Amino acid sequence: MRCLRIQYLHIMNLQLPYCFCFFLLLQLPFSTNGQAYKNVSLGTSLTAASGDLPWTSPSGEFAFGFQQVGDAGYLLAIWFNKIPERTIVWSANRNNLAQRGSTVQLTADGQLVLNNQSGTRIWTRPELGGSGADYAAMLDTGNFMLAGQAGANLWQSFDQPTDTLLPTQNLNLGGELIAPYLEKNYSDGRFKLILQDDGNLVMHTTAYPLTTSIFAYWTTQSSIGSGHQLIFNQSGYMYVVATNGTILNPVFSNSVPSQDLYLRATIDYDGVFRQYVYPKTASGGKRWAMNWTTLPNSIPSNICLAIRYSAGSGACGFNSYCTLGDDQRPSCRCPPGYTFSDHDDERKGCKKTFISQDCDHPSQEIDSFEFRDMPNTNFPYADYEVFSPVDEDWCRQSCLSDCYCDVATFIDGKCWKKRGPLLNGVTDPSLRDKALMKVRIANWTAGSSAKKRDPSALIVTGSVLLGSSIFLIVLSLLGIYVFFTRWNRQKRKVIPQHHVIRDMNLQNFTYNELETATGGFDEELGRGAFGPVYKGVLGDEDKQIIAVKKLEKMAGEGETEFKTEVKVIGRTNHKNLVQLVGFCNEGQHRLLVYEYMSSGSLSNYIFGDSRPNWHRRMQIAFGITMLTGTADNDTMDCRTHIITSIPAFVFIENRLRPP
Ligand SMILES: *[C@@H]1O[C@H](CO)[C@@H](O)[C@H](O)[C@H]1NC(C)=O
Ligand SMILES: *[C@@H]1O[C@H](CO)[C@@H](O)[C@H](O)[C@H]1NC(C)=O
Ligand SMILES: *[C@@H]1O[C@H](CO)[C@@H](O)[C@H](O)[C@H]1NC(C)=O
Ligand SMILES: *[C@@H]1O[C@H](CO)[C@@H](O)[C@H](O)[C@H]1NC(C)=O
Ligand SMILES: *[C@@H]1O[C@H](CO)[C@@H](O)[C@H](O)[C@H]1NC(C)=O
Ligand SMILES: *[C@@H]1O[C@H](CO)[C@@H](O)[C@H](O)[C@H]1NC(C)=O
Ligand SMILES: *[C@@H]1O[C@H](CO)[C@@H](O)[C@H](O)[C@H]1NC(C)=O
């Protein structure tokens, strides 16, 4: 006895695969000289995380006790006890997990009580006063019962199901199953199945986090008025019967050899009611994998199409769309231009990855948006305008110039304009609608999560750079030439602090000023051969935004050389280019300070349909005609922003202004 108990303690603490092996080893002692099945007598208790053995059924197939749910706490639950997954079929406290040290006790006066660590009752059965139980029993059906005088049934877990029904467990009028929130998060979720008082068996979406019904997505209409009970019989059939026992509506008609297979019917977190089987033994399961297998004809057959209502998000979260996989399970995805709000919980929906159209200047922004076509896709009930008869191009233009329009759908000369949050999104081959997702063209996806305040600027930067490598080499050589000739000729001189080079209107900053302006060189915009570039804000009245270039490779060169360099770069300014604002030349520190332009409209100009070709863009940048022959403007990778050389710095920071 003692030995057995120790072995069990080990089992409770082992990982599942090992646990399973140990469990098999234990089958022999358990069934031959192990503890005989006993009813749960008054005064017996279990403590969460103490290693107490759960209360098992005579066959050992079901157990009642505590199951740990991640790090969140413990469920007082009933589970399949002979399979490694320990699949939970019922729980008492799914919305209020118990902590380590909590106890469940069948008290001396016959109450089944769950107490938290400090001894406060958090759940108790039977609920109302009256006589207590004489004993409790975990039955081989998976039903846990409190028995009164002469075995009278005072309470049973079968009468208060959570998300699962077991064979012989029937649902009476008013009985309901509530889907779990996620596969391994058992708290109340977003869907439920209820045998209504009128006899109608219905599946509803709920007003999460409440469990009130919102929209019925599946019903057995014909049982209204005469439906009396939902029967789940031993061989796997499930149906609604009338008071006289007549079958009114079959629900599942899968015939299951119950001697070989465990069976359950569960409303899953995705809102689908499914039957599952698991082989009881490896030999009995020749046909079946040693795992829960879904039986055919889940309800509803396609939940993606089943839920369409004006309130609630549909089968998936807001702004996402649902599609049925090859495994007949729904999956939730984000449309182009959107990403999951919470990657750990895809059903929380999707959010835009781009900045919405500016309603103050919608016409200016038309060129910033494009459509991503999603065939066989619709977002029912998200529309606010409909046009007919129109053609698809008209539909696109209408959505493009309307800042409210997030997506348009088009079918047979009809155009619907829809706004977010998008509801009931679904992609399915049966749909002929084409959804036109309106997304901002400049796409910013690079790693920086917190610091993407001005994505378009960096995109411009990167693409301009990559496309301009030949140019840069020429400029580099020029720069190096100038640098060396000046260096050889000129002598070291001290530039007075705060001296403004009058003729060029360049300001001389102290290193401290720039350190403050950039918040300690916090937000790096890019990095090149001569060092990094940081974003900053000047402390002056205008709060001018600047880009500060640290010339690491130039540290150690002379003052005069640097000053000369500043002048050279300063002169590169052109009416179309961004200004050099100033510099810092202090000890080892050499920095250049540029005007920083938020470039929403700039990027449109460069990347929009009306953008000039590469050749022309270079001309604009330098006010000259330099390149001849073919120039490639389409192979630029908009996402890269590597800065390659010092003339590149000049060019990057002197970004194009719209003419
Ligand atoms: C459980 O208790 C009932 C009622 O006292 C009794 O009939 C039954 O034999 C008990 N079962 C076991 C295994 O002790
Ligand atoms: C036990 O539950 C009571 C009532 O909900 C609560 O006030 C108390 O803090 C809980 N104790 C612990 C240790 O969680
Ligand atoms: C389950 O999900 C809900 C809703 O997101 C959350 O509040 C709760 O903490 C989760 N429970 C567990 C055990 O993770
Ligand atoms: C279960 O129901 C089906 C359909 O009514 C019936 O054919 C079958 O015999 C029933 N099985 C049991 C064990 O009652
Ligand atoms: C059983 O009840 C149903 C619905 O109330 C009714 O249609 C049917 O005729 C009844 N059958 C018998 C045998 O009484
Ligand atoms: C059992 O099924 C689950 C979910 O379908 C899967 O994640 C797991 O890998 C399967 N286990 C085995 C042993 O096949
Ligand atoms: C931006 O790019 C990412 C990955 O390349 C993509 O998933 C997303 O849909 C794109 N967004 C837009 C607005 O095109």
UniProtKB/TrEMBL annotation:
The reply on keyword Membrane is yes
Keywords of the record, alphabetical order, are:
ATP-binding, Disulfide bond, EGF-like domain, Glycoprotein, Kinase, Membrane, Nucleotide-binding, Receptor, Serine/threonine-protein kinase, Signal, Transferase, Transmembrane, Transmembrane helix
Q: List each copy of the Bulb-type lectin domain by range.
A: 39-159
Its Gene Ontology molecular function terms?
Answer: ATP binding; protein serine/threonine kinase activity; protein tyrosine kinase activity
Q: Please tell me which top-level EC class this enzyme sits in.
A: transferase
Q: Name one GO cellular component term.
A: membrane
Q: Where are the transmembrane segments?
A: 458-484
The entry's protein name is non-specific serine/threonine protein kinase
- Origin organism is Salix brachista
